[in-house]
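Morning. Coffee machine broken again, so started the prediction first thing and wrote up yesterday's gels while waiting. Chain of 586 residues, entered below exactly as on the submission form.
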Amino acid sequence: MLNSIESNEILNRLPAHLQQYIKPQNYEDYTPINQAVWRYVMRKNVEYLSKVAHRSYLDGLKQTGISIEHIPNMYGMNRILKAIGWAAVAVDGFIPPAAFMEFQAYNVLVIASDIRQLENIEYTPAPDIIHEGAGHAPIIANPEYAEYLRRFGEIGCKAISSSHDYEVYEAIRKLSILKEAEGTPPEEISKIEKLVEELQQKEVIPSEMSFIRNLHWWTVEYGLIGTPEDPKIYGAGLLSSIGESKSCLTDKVKKIPYSIEAMHQEFDITKPQPQLYVTPDFAHLSLVLEEFANKMALRKGGLSGIKKLIDSKGLGTIEFSTGLQVSGNFENVIEFEGKPIYIQTKGKTALAYREKELVGHGTKSHTEGFGSPIGKLKGINLAIEDMSPRDLKAYNIYEAENVSLEFEGGITVNGEIITGTRNLQGKITLISFKNCSVKYFDQILFKPEWGQYDMAVGKEIVSAFAGPADHHSFDLITHKTSSTTIKSDKTVKRTELEDLYEAVRNFREGKNTKYSLQAVFDILKKDHQEDWLLTTEIYELALEHDPKLAKITKDYLEKLQQKRSNIAHLIEDGISMAETKLVSEK
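Came back before lunch.
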């Protein structure tokens, strides 16, 4: 995909399994109406956010080159983001949480390149370029926050998901698309809303991914900074919502000091949030993140970590105390006295050390799965990994020797040793056998006729995490979206309205146009009575160029406010911005 877009050094580091989500921005697809929506939201936001956002926001707007007048071109943004060590890519709406976070780990900002419809100008449940470009991008100019974001991605992409998480993700993605699409039948939205509600209310044991997703939401997306009594906005969801950026600071929204307890607070992506969390500073975010990471299987390993991987039914990795890593789909664990004593994967499996696949131990060598004992030998206090060459010889663990190994808990390995593999510290990490049988009491785990048996060495499992140790070991180019964003229909009436928006834009920029402002307004009144945004733009220009038209358009807007109370405040803000601009220019 990078071959079809303008790349740079940061994007070139992205592995293929992340590149599969990238799509070209196709800047020419943005319509004049899209540009007007961007301009309205940005003008309104920047004026208001200059008073209530964290100081890094306005500084970041300048540093990232984001204009108020035009939807940002991502390739232009990339040239500027490069100076702060980041890059941006376009994607189609929501992508899986693990992929989203892994992009962050590579210092890459994921931007949904679509833009909200005029009807959803205050808030959209779907990620869009206003949310991502005007919300996320400016704040990463703060170095401390940018490092939090990168570190969050690095840890978050290792969080273990559940099959339930995937169901919820797919349902929410579909709901956000339907809510943002024009003309979706209410009964269709209601049906998917019911499904989302049922899934969210289903009693399941929360996964690591669900917990860290909550922490991401209450910081990166909907975070406040300062004190509960005097908070400032830094979360992208608030920075990009002209409705919620105001309502979030009222007493109607509860303010809670941010702590690790936020991981238990679920959220509804389609509605304004009833409570928000306030961090005293950006450094505190990193403290909470590390506190959460200490609870993850990534750092704890053990029996619970293996069970999380089995329950996830997804590709994961465990790491032995010797550093040997086993990646695959884990299907079984045998335990003894609360500890794992044998693990088994199913299907393609790969072995690695320090995130690099071991030569001769990729998925072609382990096509049917991999099983190995864990722990110490029975009656011997010294673990195999801690044995010196003299100890190994004494216990007959030596090349070309027939050996019988009995582990604590009842696993036995009998066979002829072919060779052993050592790590950089000289500890044995893997022992290969021929003519080998492995049993758990009377249960056969491996037969001699199955070929070479490779036994991992390690007295304990120190880590368990989602995904492979070496992403080159598996074919991860499997992304197929169950739903894609829905584009507006290009009707004759819609095309005419876009032409009118373009004419006004050209007039503002001093370009030739086939319509006068008066002509545009006359057509709007006659054929596009549901539109209000373009009239506010005509009013803004008429104040400077045609006082008579300015009075007519303002009267029209005021009548429209009375007829359409649901958008009266948006029209009022449009009038206010036009008059403020005139005063400031004088």
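The mean pLDDT is 90. Going to sketch it on the whiteboard this afternoon.
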